[in-house]
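Issue: copy button drops trailing tokens. Both records pasted manually instead:
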Amino acid sequence: MRYLSATALIWILAAVLPVVAIVSLSLGTVSIPFQKIIETLVYAFSGNAEYSQINSIILDIRLPRLILVLLVGAVLASLGAVMQGLFRNPLADPSLIGVSGGASVGASIVIVFAGGAMLPPLAGLSLLAFGAFIGGVISTLIVYRVATSSLGTSVTTMLLAGIAIGAIAGAINSLLSYFSDNQMLRQISVWQMGNLGGANWLKVTIMGSISVVLLALLPSQAKALNALLLGESEARHLGIHVQKIKRKLIFLTALGVGASVALAGLIGFVGLVIPHMIRLLIGPDHRWLLPASALAGASLLIVADSIARVVVLPAELPTGILTALLGAPIFVALLHRQREEL
């Protein structure tokens, strides 16, 4: 296959991202001109923004949501590329290690037994987010423990354990839904569809802190991921500490996906479609695949969230529905194209 220049694609994606971001800020129940958005942002960053209804909509509602969407999209797409490299399978997804299923159970337990309680020290962060994060981390630890023996961590066993944990999580969620009242059932359903409507600056700060750590550390693992594509034995011969790399990548994936799911709900297909699509365009070299996936994932999720906000005005669709509607056809088209080229 003839690949596109990696640097060219990254420059294109870097140019597209601010454009879709500005367009996203302009869309909603209240349509705001681009010039007003740029003026408001310039004045805000210079510390001279005055209070007005439009400024409040941009700075207090749409901007934190936009940044949260951008961060979640970048993290999920990057971690999707990591998991596809670790499993040596272009159809792998960050949820394969059980984190999404565990987070879903944690969120459902909180909804059923604690309602929408807020964490006292952190006004604006619900107990639901905390429960989802803890659930995701616990499920990942279980999967890792099952797949690890004295001989190391088996990615095949990890995949099977992740599927088993996902099935168990689905059963527990169904049981909790069965005993829920109508309001609880609606909360569980909306959360599992992925909803970014509750974005605020506290969530942005938490997700931003985690994203900075992840997006700073992941590029340093590109060499190891490239070596793992050759096989674990070959990677060891190249001087890669395979078990240490696996442990680090699984921990970073659990951290990133757990935080994303906790703060934004279940967002599907971003971690599957984007890395696969970028790999078809520029090849499997993770030095370029990771940053390109981050940029493309951020842009795709911004587009999906923007459509979700305006397609059924004055209401809005959960973003997870749009990512599935956009991602699934693209993925099928990619698979069809790949099959024709074989």
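Record 2 (pasted manually too):
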Amino acid sequence: MNKNILSVILVLVTFFAISFITNIIGPIFPSLVKDFDISLAVAGFLPFSFFAAYGVMSIPSGILVDKFSEKPVLIAAFAISAFGSLLFALIPSFFMAMGSLFLIGTGMAMLQVAINPLLRVSGGQENFAFYSVLAQLIFGAAATLSPLVYSFLVQGIHKEQSGGFFQLLSDMVPKDLPWLSMYWLFALVSILMLVFILLIKLPRVVHNEEEQVGSWNIYAELFKNKMVIYFFIAIAAYVGTEQGVANAISLFLEKYHGLDPLKVGAGVVSDFWLMLTLGCFLGLALLKVIDSRLVLKIFSVGAVISLTAALFGSVDIALIAFPLVGFFLSVMWSVIFSLALNSIADYHGSFAGILCTGIVGGGLASPIIGLIADLTGDLRIGMLVIYLTLGYIFTIGYWAKPLVNNKTISLKGKDGSDGAKAVENE
């Protein structure tokens, strides 16, 4: 274990880097629309460019890991991410932004595929569950921190008395595009991670059955299974919901309540990711006493109620309700993913690759929301798309038929006496 501690740290820091870079699009969204003078529909293609990379690269990344091992893939991923970040920082334009975000998304997709098996081996299989939960908490912490760093950097650049670090950033970005400083920061983070990986020795990873990537014939076979299709759509619906809401928060608060995207909007987006992280704790507790399908239905209803309050309530309600949407989304990814893998008997590694490809749904929601908002002149109407994705997630609680259900604790023994007893749902 001791000899692999650096590898564990590397994986956990990689989770932080992925989340920090991925979840900045929402806070920056109003600035992109304003500074590039584009419609909401066109702006929606920016997150689409990022998440489309997941759709293109998730399965090929698994094949690359199988062929070359984790370390070369990690190096290539951060190199691509650094190049994409520098490209946009040096040549800021809308079309360059799309290309840059696709490159950054490609790097993030490669990292997602490579780091989970590495975490299992580095930390020891007996500690994998603990480190997986820790990694998710770090992922959430980075998502919470990213909008705050963005606000801090841009406000620091705006201050006339700024010097030192802020002055350096100010000299590196156009005066009318201070948010571009985040992409210099992304490039720096990627380069530092690249150096870290080059300097340490990673353990040899032998992929278990759930991590093995199958041939293209296996993927073709899996797509003949209607459950595979249903769960692929479910992952797309979840990521579309998460990103659709996160990307709209700051813009919505500015448009309907006149709140500053930098001083208020970024903070609410940060609270959204914080609540999404904290909600995992309640979700973990509920999954010990309630069937996961029922948990999914309860949290889906909670998300719908919170979203409705955010869209149609007062400014004070919106400031609370948007983060609450994040709270109710918290368990959905893990529940949907586990239900999916537990619904087929074989080829879990290949199926996981298909599910990760469904992350492309995160890019589809924003352009659709933007297009409807542009056509109707009302962002609220565009956001009604989220009701459709949440509705689909709610239905999973009815049609999912896992071969193995989550284990719950019965508060009554079989004889009716009190006492906790672990039972498996029938």
